[in-house]
Amino acid sequence: KEVEAEGVVALPGVCIDDLEISVSNYEHPRPELLRCDDSRVVEESVHSHLLKSNCPVTSQPDWGSVVVEYRGAALDHASLLEYIVSFRQHSDFHEQCVERIFMDVWTRCKPIKLSVYARYTRRGGLDINPFRTSYPQQLPLNVRTARQ
Q: Which of 30, 73, 123, 130 meets the CB 3.0–4.6 Å disulfide criterion with 98?
């Protein structure tokens, strides 16, 4: 409650960070890791605080929290977490990472609707929080997370 009083909020949905996974590739995002169960249609929000990529200009690490909200075939949470962790050594801008996550989930799972957004830790005082959606909706609230 003290953290909330300071204007810091939790991201929506289920946090997938505590799932037990085994990751062997940190070099490139691996969309083939994403698995969906076509027999179950769900509407849910999931998030992870383990997104990390590298700035293509400075090679500095960029840490972020990513939210995936969708309706469609049930996305396997462990496979999503493995996929997110596979960005660890990838060099790209924040916006491009979110676009890639969006397109990989869109292509692999074919959801009815999908939105992906990230809240990156600030570097140089800049707040960059890219957002991509497949349907008209309000922008996510511009709130601070504990990691920012």
A: 130
**Residue 64 burial (10 A CB sphere; 0-12, 13-18, 19+):** buried
Q: Note the pLDDT tens digit of each residue in 75-129.
A: 999 999 999 999 999 999 999 999 999 999 999 999 999 999 999 988 777 788 8
Whether the predicted model's global pTM rises above the 0.85 cut: yes
Instruction: For tokens 């996550």, name the residue.
Output: 101
Q: Which of 18, 36, 38, 55 is catalytic?
A: 55
**Residue 62 falls in the annotated catalytic set:** yes
Q: What is the DSSP string of 83-121?
A: HHHTTTT-B--HHHHHHHHHHHHHHHH--SEEEEEEEEP
Tokens 């490139």 belong to 28
Of 62, 76, 97, 104, which is the active-site residue?
A: 62
Q: What angle do CA 89, 91, 96 make, to 5 degrees?
A: 125
pLDDT digits 0-9 by tens, 124-137: 777 888 999 999 87
Residue 36 appears among annotated catalytic residues: no
